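Shipment paperwork, digital attachment
Item: protein structure file
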Amino acid sequence: MRFDILTLFPEMFEGIFSVSILKRACDKGLAEYHLHNIRDYSTDKHRRVDDYPFSGESGMVMKIEPVAACIRPRTARC
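Attachment content:
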């Protein structure tokens, strides 16, 4: 079974996948884990992935462009 994890902090998951029951599942070939840093798919020079909400309320929202580029099939990427 393949798990693709989209995150802004891939370092948080590396420890979990290297010493837990998830590592044993990976070693046995039952699961494979792929971490994807959403910032790698940002197009601006500061690698921003957040935007301001349109409603004027406080908080932040994710831009769809980096997430969509990350989940796009690899064959479609240049």
